[in-house]
Write a structure and sequence with these properties.
single chain, about 180 residues, mainly alpha, about 65% helix, elongated, transmembrane helix, transmembrane, membrane, DUF2062 domain-containing protein, DUF2062
Length: about 180
């Protein structure tokens, strides 16, 4: 099983409860699904991570962790899954979310303003404020589209993990039966 290979990367329960920063959250982190690698916990972690990955800003992993604790799914998987949003995938995901939001709200797609930042000689301390104002311009259309896209990606991620886990298990059982039926 792949679980055996992943277990060496996961912290033990003892290490989590004794960690100086996590010690204060002890009761919240005690649920067994937060750390065990089973099909439902991992699939739920992927779903939570896919949803939390669409939250703009640097709080994606934190939101993934909070949602994993609330829904009691695999915490490390949820946090790592948020990494699907990166500088390469970020632009297309924003456009997809805005397009979905415009379909739902009836807002025309052409309303998106250009991102105004002087890339050649601009003051880099103005990059984040410019990005913030650009996001504010997207408004409720983006927020609604982002929630819908997050839900779709979460459902697809959950289903993909469930299916992949099931297919792996069936192949493992077939190999085991074949080995058992083969005479020595």
């Amino acid at each position: 099983m792949p679980r055996k290979h992943f277990r060496r990367f996961l912290p033990t329960h003892q290490a989590v409860h004794e960690h100086r920063h996590l010690r204060h959250f002890g009761p919240l982190l005690k649920h067994h699904n937060l750390w065990h690698l089973n099909r439902n916990s991992v699939a739920g972690g992927v779903a939570v991570g896919m949803f939390a990955g669409l939250i703009p800003g640097p709080v994606q992993m934190l939101m993934g962790a909070i949602l994993a604790i609330v829904f009691r799914v695999n915490l490390p998987v949820a946090m790592v899954t948020t990494w699907y949003t990166n500088p390469i995938t970020w632009g297309p995901l924003i456009l997809a979310a805005y397009a979905l939001g415009s379909l739902v709200t009836g807002e025309p797609m052409g309303r998106v303003t250009d991102f105004e930042f002087d890339w050649t000689g601009g003051d880099w301390s103005q990059f984040l404020p410019s990005l913030y104002h650009w996001f504010l311009g997207l408004g409720e259309t983006y927020v609604i589209g982002s929630l819908i896209l997050g839900a779709i990606l979460a459902a697809l991620g959950y289903g993909a993990v469930q299916l992949a886990w099931r297919l792996y298990l069936l192949a493992y059982i077939r190999r085991r039966r074949r080995r058992a039926s083969t005479p020595l």
